[in-house]
Write a structure and sequence with these properties.
Largest sheet of chain A: 5 strands, parallel
Structural class of chain A: alpha/beta
Oligomer: homodimer
Radius of gyration of chain A: 22 Å
Helix content of chain A: 25-40%
Chain lengths: ~425, ~425
């Protein structure tokens, strides 16, 4: 019997878990295509941006992850489109035929129609972007140190984070801690504690998906860290000297974008139904209605989980859908019927700073130190499979004890230019 | 009494050690200027290039290193020239006056008049270059995996290292080990063990500054690792498909340059005497003959250590000169006379591969496992002062035990282009 060809596009949480679940399944050959060579543990990406961890500590080569899966091929390449009728994936290195296609391409930033803002307000989705954010933040302090004009110095020491979801909150808390503690003794001409960190949110409260009491707690905790939280504030302009919110202008050389996401570009080329946000609308088994052999996972897809309610774009959804689809294919090859995908909501958490977090499940609300311990345990647990988890633990312990940051290294040729093509 | 202004240009081994030695010296204020924010432990740079270590593990922010030296200012900036008569350093952020100037700007690659080769044969001097070499090496395997043409595949799996000094030998040994062991199980369509690694040396033997018996041992050890060593071979051309040596052409997509160095560009602007290689000729106290207040250290300078014999461009020279000059300034401020610099040759070492090295001092010659243990101990000792030395130890232990490499992460936007503007 000829092997069924399963093509997986994307080595994120969805793709990697699908590949692992199909590992050594008889009668199945898997080709996993990704434009990068590594699987990224995205929930800790902000720690790379904030110079607490190194890229290799939260990333693993996709090849290594599936090294022992003899039936899984990994190809580095960019997928440019899919011929749904001919069942072929088109990539920069050629075409690959499939019997089953699993798309798990993730999402990218949304600037709500203002893509020109990206240059002055990078987002946080990839290691490159994390390093770029790190470079901008560290360089701002360096430039402030050698600046004589107090107005320019103030602009350099003002940081604006747009969007107060978990990523925005984590960035704001970490940035404030760096300024207050880590950088405290390192500068002579500036007082890094004079740094101002703004967290701008369009909605009425920080951490919108959380329980309002946890949002309130998080806001107060951030304010204790001297973060200036502005809710109900829509950014109407971003330029190289700051942001505009209605009539107000905040002068800042460093603006970070954590406000919105949109699904991967490839969705526009598929010619299938999408929701308003551009996500592919999928059936209850994660497949396309006209193509049951094609599955779309994670935040690339809109999965309706109840009357008008869609699953959020979080890691647990992608992980569970990846495993589910792989298992579905395995069962289908044995002649069994498809069962719909059931999402098991494990809750959500966000760290605010050193030893502070909020967490909630369907029943439990936690905040403060114990929520942070919970956050720590969950992330360490999920890092299993990453060879470097012990290094991460070591770094964390070191950072925690010393208030230091082990990775304050700017690696860029043009360290003082805010260009997108950083080197 | 007004404080004496000491300006140090360069935060390498020479500059950092001078700054540390001047730490908290009364009557002295130090300004250390570097174009990068980090001090780099260069002897381990090849391990970053070979994906064994992460950048932050062998680099420390200069600010952190001198954090507790209240009289030392650190400025990130590029020095463009020196006005020796007005005693001013010109930098991109303005001018800085000095009473004493310590220049320790290091060296860069020399392509012997063929700067156009750099694009196809990057050298290894900075973290950026190490990451670029890592990217090229890892990407070559990735491209070979998806290549159908066996001729192109062979070209992708052929690596040429030009120059068989310690860096070239270390790169060749590591590259061969990666191909044979680390990548062994990761690819399906290629056999990474088919990789060919060439080590090209213009002189008659590898490791020219070492005892000929150690050179012979090193060459045999490399050949056991399947490295093809070619001595007495002058590269006459480098292009994007390989190198030319006289009548012979070696087709290779990845060429690394470890053949020659030249002092920092700034030497050309100083208007002082240099040797044929462009190094500033200094007196026996490391100063300029016409400017006893200006010192030039390390491989930026030509220090005559005996009839026509010059000190080599190694870390120990820069470290000792940095300490010496700082101590000289301290003594001079107390009215004492200058004593000439005395170099204490601690010997040299080079690793060939996992658990193999050569080492020599004036009296002792070592090779094999015990030389490697010595290499390990010396490098761990010198890493003291780097907060991350425990992480390095951990990574090494892990890599040693598993034959793995913890840092096989390509972080580049344009991962498949061999452009210099990597990110």
């Amino acid at each position: 019997m000829e092997k069924k060809q399963v093509v997986i596009v994307g080595g994120g949480f969805g793709g990697i878990n699908a590949a692992r679940e199909l590992s050594d399944v008889k009668g199945v050959h898997v080709t996993l295509i990704d434009k990068r060579n590594h699987h990224l543990f995205q929930p800790l990406l902000y720690q790379v941006a904030m110079a607490a961890l190194s890229p290799a500590e939260i990333a693993a080569p996709i090849r290594s992850v599936v090294r022992h899966s003899g039936n899984v091929d990994v190809l580095l390449g960019t997928v440019t489109g899919v011929d749904l009728n001919a069942r072929k994936v088109k990539a920069d290195f050629g075409e690959v035929s499939y019997d089953y296609l699993i798309m798990a391409c993730g999402s990218t930033h949304s600037y709500f129609g203002h893509d020109e803002w990206e240059e002055n307000a990078p987002g946080l989705k990839s290691l490159e972007e994390a390093l770029e954010i790190r470079r901008r933040v560290l360089t701002a302090f360096e430039l402030a140190e050698r600046e004589h004009d107090p107005v320019v110095q103030e602009e350099l020491l003002t940081f604006v984070i747009v969007g107060a979801g978990p990523t925005g909150v984590e960035l704001a808390g970490a940035l404030s801690e760096i300024s207050h503690y880590t950088m405290g003794h390192d500068f002579r001409n500036i007082d890094p504690r004079r740094t101002r960190v703004y967290l701008i949110e369009g909605g009425p409260r920080v951490l919108p998906p959380f329980d309002p009491r946890l949002s309130e707690y998080a806001q107060k905790a951030l304010e204790k860290l001297d973060v200036i939280v502005k809710t109900n504030s829509i950014v109407t302009k971003v330029h190289e000297h700051g942001v505009v919110i209605g009539n107000e202008e905040i002068r800042a050389r460093t603006v970070l974008w954590a406000a919105g996401v949109q699904p991967a570009e490839i969705n526009k080329t598929l010619g299938v139904a999408t929701d308003r946000g551009g996500r592919v609308i999928v059936e209850r088994d994660c497949s396309l209605s006209a193509h049951p052999e094609v599955f779309v996972l994670g935040d690339q897809a809109a999965f309706e989980a109840g009357a008008g309610k869609y699953l959020p774009g979080v890691a647990t959804v992608a992980i569970q859908q990846g495993r589910y689809v792989a298992s579905l294919i395995r069962q289908e090859l044995k002649g069994k019927e498809r069962k719909p995908f059931q999402y098991w909501d494990k809750g959500s958490m966000a760290t605010i700073g050193r030893a502070l977090a909020v967490a909630q499940t369907r029943r439990i609300r936690m905040k403060g130190f114990f929520a942070w311990i919970g956050w720590l345990l969950v992330h360490i647990y999920y890092l299993i499979g990453f060879e470097n988890r012990m290094v991460v633990l070591f770094q964390w312990a070191y950072n925690y004890l010393t208030m230091g940051r082990g990775a304050r290294i700017i690696t860029n040729r043009d360290w003082h230019s805010h260009t997108k093509k950083n080197s």
